[in-house]
Specification:
Length: 278
């Protein structure tokens, strides 16, 4: 179970990206995090695994206070919190299999990972996960030879290789065509159900969020302004989240916004993966 209490992120210039956010996410629940650009959605996800350091508040995963952990203990806690990035964060020159196995870096150690030495049970699990995400037979393909949807599926398989308790998913469909976006969201929903995983998915597409998730979290200006089942997210409620604007326009990002998100993903994923093996 994830428990967030009074979570606040305040920057040196005084800007508050998050303002006393509180929520509890039980095991097995898939929650969508929606809201306008700049609402603090990515910041919230990154504060949970401390890619962004919270200013105040508490983040507990199965009773462990994440915000109090030192560097070594935090690496251990991050094994239980797998992250899936919008920009996929794959090593493009490596094979699909090698990218998936990188989800075990926090377990096998730095030198074994450098030599690409993984236990046979990890390799067999990787094959099984590739089959589950629809990439059977592509294990030797270079990551940069895959489509965007296929790369996202590799990222999902890599996250599941960690055997996490919590999935943090940042804009998994932003760069995908509508058909592939539905496939990826359906896959995430099925895998969370099969593995009994809790998940928070930061997503701009409101119809997708309502169709595939168990719960909607609406964030506006760093505050949680809606928390309920998809059926309660009506057209009358949406202006409370999107500030009275045409909420349907929030299903797409501008190219500049996507580029900014991609840059943040690359920085964060590089830090995240590096800290797993140091």
């Amino acid at each position: 179970m994830l428990e967030i209490t009074d979570l606040t992120k305040r920057y040196p210039d005084g800007f508050e990206a998050l303002k006393s956010v509180e929520l509890t996410l039980p095991q097995g629940q898939l929650a969508a995090l929606i809201g306008p650009s700049g609402a603090g959605k990515s910041t919230l996800i990154r504060c949970v695994n401390r890619l962004v350091e919270p200013t105040e508040g508490s983040v507990k995963l199965d009773g462990t206070e994440v915000t109090d952990l030192g560097r070594s203990a935090l690496r251990g806690a991050r094994r239980d919190m797998a992250m899936i990035f919008q920009s996929y964060a794959l090593v493009e020159r490596l094979s699909v299999m090698e990218n998936v196995l990188s989800g075990r870096l926090g377990y096998v150690g730095f030198f074994n990972s450098l030599l690409r030495r993984f236990p046979s049970q990890d390799i067999q699990r990787a094959y099984k996960l590739l089959e589950q995400v629809g990439l059977e037979g592509l294990h030797d393909r270079r990551a940069d030879e895959l489509s965007g949807g296929q790369q996202q599926r590799v990222g999902i398989a890599r996250a599941l290789m960690q055997e996490p308790k919590l999935l943090l998913v940042d804009e998994p469909t932003a760069s995908l065509d509508p058909r592939t976006a539905h496939q990826v969201m359906g896959l995430l929903a099925d895998l969370c159900d099969e593995h009994d995983l809790a998940a928070i998915i930061n997503i701009h597409d409101v119809p997708l969020a309502k169709e595939y998730t168990d719960r909607i979290l609406g964030l506006n200006a760093g505050q949680l302004v809606f928390d309920g089942p998809p059926a309660e997210l009506t057209d009358e409620v949406l202006p409370d989240i999107y500030g009275g604007e045409d909420w349907s326009a929030h299903g797409e990002q501008s190219a500049d916004e996507e580029d900014d998100d991609d840059d943040e993903d690359v920085r964060s994923s590089g830090q995240f993966l590096a800290e797993e093996v140091l």
